Amino acid sequence: MRVACIQMRSGTDPDRNAEDFQRLVAEAAGANARYVQTPEMTGLVQKDRAALMRAVRPESDDRVFAAAARQAKEHDIWLHVGSTPILREDGKVANRAALFAPDGTRAATYDKIHMFDVDLENGESWRESAIYAPGDMLVTRKMDDTTLGLAICYDLRFPHLFRDQALAGGAILTAPAAFTRQTGQAHWHVLLRSRAIENGAFVIAAAQGGLHEDGRETYGHSLVVDPWGAIIAEKDDDEPGIIVADIDLSAPAAARARIPNLQNARSYVHENKINEAAQ
Q: Which domain holds residue 25?
């Protein structure tokens, strides 16, 4: 299967972001990609809460999701919107991914579970939970002859989510992201390679990159990692564009046969908890 990552530098204008998204999807489809992934916050990068609330729309009226359905059908591809902000019925905002099938139907949606609430050493402070409502559902979906697991950005730091996807049959795991430059330089490659190695799965991660209109700076370096942990494609910068890779769908099963840790795992109890219960 030929796969593609779209790297973007989304800004505060949803219409312009949607135009950039469609142009890059068409470029990836022109490179004969069967599966195309876009980054987290494809449709809007806006850290100002009031401005975001003025721009965000319900799923039925979202520009990116509507365009994705059309382009998936037009290009006969699986199109994975890494995420975009969606106004929920309760008035809260979801950081929502969607997978569109080659017939244009929506095959899956996933709301980011883990919220990025952190104070960084360089003075940056992020409180994702102040704007977004977390999801609570693990999502995997069949895609042609394989199974895809959906995750978003900060989810990457929670290995059990990816392990549960792998145990549910996930052979391609995903982590579309808007990683900050500081954390990306330190951890992006090692985290993605670790999730691939420990699960014997491909990991595909389209990224935002560069200095955005709202002032944040993201790392870029979209990656495709194979089940043995090798990087087989990388956008080695923070500029918008695409990367493509041809992946062997038999590779996850081969890697899991060589290192059968998924089937060798055992349950255990915590000694201290037993002692505490006995006291």
A: 2-278
Identify the residue whose tokens are 């042609």.
144
- The verdict on whether 273 is a catalytic residue reads no
Query: Distance between CA 55 and CA 44 in Å, rounded?
Result: 8
Take residue 104 and report the two structure tokens written for it: 């244009």
112 is catalytic: yes
In contact, 104 and 142? CB cutoff 8 Å: no
70-84 pLDDT, tens digit each: 999 999 999 999 999
> DSSP characters for 15-51?
HHHHHHHHHHHHHHHHTT-SEEE--TTSS-----HHH
The residue written with tokens 């494809």 in the block is 42
| Separation CA 6–CA 207 (nearest Å) | 7
Q: Hey, what amino acid is at 241?
A: G
- List the catalytic residue out of 40, 213, 271, 273: 40
For the question of residue 40 being annotated catalytic, the response is yes
**Catalytic residue among 74, 92, 112, 239, which?**
112
Rounded-to-integer distance, Cα 110 and Cα 104, Å = 17
Domain CATH number, residue 19: 3.60.110.10
The model's pTM is: 0.95
Give per-residue pLDDT as tens, 33-68: 999 999 999 999 998 889 999 999 999 999 999 999
Q: Going by DSSP bridges, is the β-strand pair 172-174/202-205 parallel, antiparallel, or unpaired? A: parallel
Q: 270 by DSSP, 3-state: which?
A: coil
Asked if 86 contacts 98 with a C-beta cutoff of 8 angstroms, the reply is: no
Structural domain count, the chain: 1
For residues 105 and 201, what is the distance between their CA atoms, to the nearest angstrom? 26
